[in-house]
Task: structure prediction
Amino acid sequence: MKTKTYSALVILSCALFLASCNNNKPKWKQLFNGKDLKDWQIKIRTHPLNDNYANTFSVKDGNIQVRYNNYGDFNQQYGHLFYKKPYAAYLIGVEYRFVGEQAKGGEGWAIRNSGLMLHGQSPNSMTIDQDFPNSIEMQLLGGNGKDERTTANICTPGTQYVFNDEIIQQHCANSSSKTFHGDQWVRAEALVLRDSLIVHYVNGEEVLRYTKPQLDPKNGAKEGKLLTSGSISLQSESHPVDFRKVEIVNLEKFANDPTKLKEVIEELLAKN
Result:
């Protein structure tokens, strides 16, 4: 009887230990609940905070839909959908697709163009006529059916960064991704580690890596203020786009342990 009791205790202890280990593993947190825009804020150029002009952002069929059906001319009314809280060290993933035709009056460069804004300013700090938040943009692009066009590029509204030990002030630069034509779903991820490193991935493959994200410098300086954290937002840039998933893993507790961080990231990317 004692042996059986002892064995049962050992099995229970092992089960509890494994459950504890499982609970300590980083997991994806869904920022979009698939039902509504709870926990998100809207800022559209020339409109006050949380004025969802012409129902630009909505949820239908389990997707965040960015649409312009109720617009006349787009008129540079760029919009952003902000998550409610900032992050500093994290891995974020979005699954997106471009659909339909561009809104009337949209810029030529904005065809099949959207973005995921990282380390951004808060929506309430934007001016009424500000087009983009100061941020690092992971630019999301779709192909036109024939030409090559990379996605998960970098653009820098109000910011700059370091690539190969050189400060880059050029507004946009391409990644090494493939081109994605048509209305197919694409998964893009960004690893953001405070002010040290940002890495872009497309369908699990690394396509761009850079360091030291920072604000544009002032008073003739070469370097700007380093960005250690900030808002996350999805872009409305005149072409209809769907987001079916927006999820994040907070990596704060691993950010100072490169070995563990590498292991965690590899495991998370492998699952998707």
